[in-house]
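Consider the tokenized backbone below.
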């Protein structure tokens, strides 16, 4: 049996990013020898990372936005990543700008509420496709006026399944199971785009083998 210190010196076992473990080092997990001191995912997922990122005042976080176009089965057709300080309308336009001649049979796109105004008008005018926004029935409702006497209605709360919205949310869940897409690791948005396509290709190949 080879002693572990000799193994570490000859084959790199026990070596961290700064070389072999020191003799007489403290127990693993102590502050002096810890390789990573972050015990969980960062709140904004971009703590000190390189590359273009922006602040989204709506979500109150700094990072990037991922826009995806999927078919009715949830498989990726196109993707676009950009800093979070850009609006959904700008990101959606960049996502679809070059697809008018690619998807000639496309007629209807379901979107969430962030795309329902300026983006929807641009799609109808420039691409000739119809856009249907799928929102929660009580989205934006804060005050309900009722006549004197009757009790005000109780607004529904909690999770509600919305038509077609679950398809793209499921796609994001599929992509997020890949380690490189579980958080915002990449320095360049183009690199993140490439990983989205690679993860989608892997998913399609797995489906074909079954």
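A designed sequence for it:
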């Amino acid at each position: 049996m080879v002693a572990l210190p000799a193994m570490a010196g000859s084959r790199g076992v026990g070596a961290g990013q700064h070389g072999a473990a020191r003799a007489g080092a403290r127990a693993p997990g102590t502050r002096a020898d810890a390789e990573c001191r972050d015990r969980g995912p960062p709140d904004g997922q971009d703590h000190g990372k390189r590359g273009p990122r922006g602040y989204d005042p709506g979500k109150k976080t700094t990072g990037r936005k991922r826009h995806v176009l999927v078919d009715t089965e949830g498989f990726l057709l196109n993707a676009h990543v950009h800093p979070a300080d850009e609006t959904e309308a700008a990101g959606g336009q960049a996502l679809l700008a070059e697809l008018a001649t690619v998807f000639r049979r496309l007629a209807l796109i379901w979107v969430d509420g962030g795309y329902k105004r300026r983006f929807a008008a641009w799609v109808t005018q420039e691409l000739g496709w119809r856009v249907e926004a799928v929102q929660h029935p009580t989205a934006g409702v804060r005050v309900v006026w009722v006549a004197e006497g009757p009790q005000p209605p109780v607004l529904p709360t909690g999770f509600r399944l919305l038509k077609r919205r679950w398809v793209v949310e499921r796609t994001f869940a599929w992509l997020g199971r890949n380690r490189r897409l579980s958080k915002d690791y990449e320095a360049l948005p183009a690199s993140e785009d490439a990983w989205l396509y690679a993860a989608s290709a892997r998913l399609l190949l797995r489906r074909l083998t079954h």
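The chain is about 30% helix and 15% strand.
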